[in-house]
Write a structure and sequence with these properties.
This protein is of the alpha/beta class. It contains 13 helices and 22 strands. Helices cover 29% and strands 24% of the residues. The strands form five sheets. It has a six-stranded mixed beta sheet with strand order 8-7-6-9-11-10, with helices on both faces. A hairpin with a 2-residue loop joins strand 3 and strand 4. The structure holds FE2/S2 (inorganic) cluster (FES). The site of FE2/S2 (inorganic) cluster (FES) has 12 residues, from loops.
Length: 494
Amino acid sequence: METCRIKFVNQNRIVEAEKGKTLLEVEIEAGLVPDAPCGGNGKCGKCGVLVGGREVPACRLLVQEDLEVETLQREAAGGQILISGAGRPVEFKPELVCPEVDRPLLAAVDLGSTSIVAYLLDGENGKLLGVRSMLNPQRQYGADVVMRSSYAMENGAGALSSCVREAVNTLLREAASANGRSREEIVRVVMVGNACMHHLFLEIPTDTLVLAPYEPRVKEAVVMEAAGCGLKVHPMAGLFWLPNIGGFVGADTVGCMLASGFDRLDRLTLLVDIGTNGEMVLGDRRGMTVCSTAAGPAFEGARITCGMRGGEGAVDRVWTEGGTLKHHVIGDAEPVGICGSGLLDAAACLLETGYMDSSGKLSETWHFAPKVFLNQKDMRELQLAKAAVAAGIRLLCRHRGVSLEDIEEVQLAGAFGNYLNPKSACAVGLLPGELEGRIRSVGNAAGIGAQIAAVNADEFERGKRLAGQAEFLELAMDPEFQEVYVDELEFPDI
Ligand code: FES
């Protein structure tokens, strides 16, 4: 095997790389965890590195000779990761599988496609002791679950599983040691995540998620020994995954439903969790319907020319003053990109000021800085994403035989839901205008649900019942979806 020497200047590291590999592959092998939103297909332009002073996409550069490479940090490695959320009082009633442990600890993990959050809880009273989070290292294999599943189908799921298991182990070790404890004292771990995260963590093939029938291979709750999937907690600790409902409505949505206690709600409530997919739940104690819609990763920065996740340098808020657009940048730094909440605000302001019409036509590319802008293609991506979510909400209402006016509360879950401005969301039609005034953020509801199930074994059972009670609306099969979706592509008239 012929090799070349690759020097990563910022990391001050030299690695031997097999000739003919892409530089992206070399970065992954070297453990640099590079961002590769399009999975190395050369489409997103976001894996750039500097070679000889020239920026090139790492996934397109085949290693043929010794190189000096500067990696480009487009965003703060941690970014903004949402860890908190609105909980409800829960009785402490864990089912401790290792009664011989003197001072047991519990853990809850929200395994998101973008970020992983681990909560450490006191096994004697259920109190939250600490939280640790990091970006999901699987992002080096693609930004969304389809790319990661495709990678797993082609190359096996080993790399995707092991990097994420290692990440969870790291977070649990850090959370425990910050409390002067050891992760080996953790006796119960409850996990939530979408169906793809669930399958990749448990090393279950993901083919049925991305190909027909688009169903999880395992829907039921999983209860197993944590050590069985590489978690370095107490050797007798149990691992509990809440169930999946469908291919795109996973254990994370069940966690949200558990956090809100949907089965006991008197008020008709709509829960919306927008990430790469928009998962929605509409209902109350009388019944609930769930659906998922392909929002696309526009709100997480992918497919938007200057898109990025929320982190230092991201334009996160835009508003108008005297007819002019003003913006805020996270960290009060120079703008390097635009995150989801900034994108939504900017579109609302461009509509308000007439720089964009309701068909989505921009009069000109809008610049926040010479290299940070929104163009026509970006607005089209936004239209596709917002129409998918809005159409899903309308069809959920039709399916349950209720009107938008009947919805008493809208709960926005997840990072994007936490940071977006509800007024902008209604102005661009991501959420129907009728709902304005009834919208509240519930933070990382999936993580809250996992904590609830960690401290009370009955709540884990309740999560299983909730998943069984929820009716799944398959939007792709709904004959009305296409028509409603096309209607929703237009922006509302302002
Ligand atoms: S262009 Fe290289 S990962 Fe997208």
